[in-house]
Amino acid sequence: MAIDLTQYEVVLLDLDGTVYHEEHPLPGAVQLIRKLQESEKRFACLSNSSASPLRVMHRLHDMGVELVPDQIYTAAAAACDYILQNYPMENPEPRRKARVFNLATESVQEMLDGLVEWVRGGGEPCDVVLAAAPSCAYATEPRQRIALELLRRGSELLGLCADRVYPSPRGLEFGSGAMCSLLAYAANVTPTFCGKPERIFFVELCQRLKVEPNRCVLIGDNLESDVMGAKPLGMATILTLSGVTRRRDLQSLDEESRPDHVVEDLTELI
């Protein structure tokens, strides 16, 4: 049965495993995005990427997809939003900026530069330790030890997302969630996560788009981070089997966790 996307105000497209894999677009992805553009249908792309929307935009450009950064929302962007909206919690000093230790990526450094005070050593006052995967540029072993010291002295541990692992050309890599579990256990703290499937990720995205969640449809390949993140907010969900989920994974799901529709890939939505 054909799925009518016109009944929704906004279409939300997951990226990795749905639109592309590594540097290659998946079947139907480019055509679906162009169809949405030609019909002037509102849509946005979302990802648990540690990259900025600008960097993701350039990556999509190389695949033949033309978007602007405002149409892309990543876990890195969500983490930056969280910091700017929540810190400093108490501000006795006029206009004091959030004090942040970057244990994450160059994208985070670019997005927050000039908007926060960068912490460089374990003895400095610090509000937030921002963490991502251990393979990230700013997550060197010496900086991990500084992060541990800051966390044990009271800083909040903020993870880009809770992903345990992520795929790369080398195979499975330790994800942001794995790094945060290491730090949380060592420092005896509880991390806060900003990416999918966290409620704050989807709420912030919908606020940016000025749309109610129940007027959106989410298309994604991951049951945990896409479907189970979107459904509690009332979003319709379409699962594509072009990524991490296989049809056999649906057999043991209860009714509340099931996607509304399942497709093999995005060619079925064109």
Structural descriptors:
Rossmann fold, 5-stranded parallel beta sheet, 30% helix, 2 domains, 270 residues, 6-stranded parallel beta sheet, 8 helices, alpha/beta
Describe the structure.
The chain has helices at 29-38, 53-61, 75-86, 106-112, 141-152, 176-187, 199-209, 223-230; strands at residues 10-14, 20-21, 24-25, 43-47, 72-74, 99-103, 117-118, 128-131, 156-159, 165-168, 171-174, 192-193, 216-220, 236-240, 261-263. With 270 residues, it is α/β, with parallel strands linked by helices. Helix 2 links the parallel strand 4 and strand 5 (72-74). Helix 5 (141-152) crosses helix 6. It has 2 domains: 9-21 and 41-48 and 196-269, HAD superfamily/HAD-like (Rossmann fold, 3-Layer(aba) Sandwich), CATH 3.40.50.1000; 81-87 and 96-193, HAD superfamily/HAD-like (Rossmann fold, 3-Layer(aba) Sandwich). A 6-stranded parallel beta sheet has the order 5-4-1-13-14-15, sandwiched between helices. 30% of the residues lie in helices and 20% in strands.
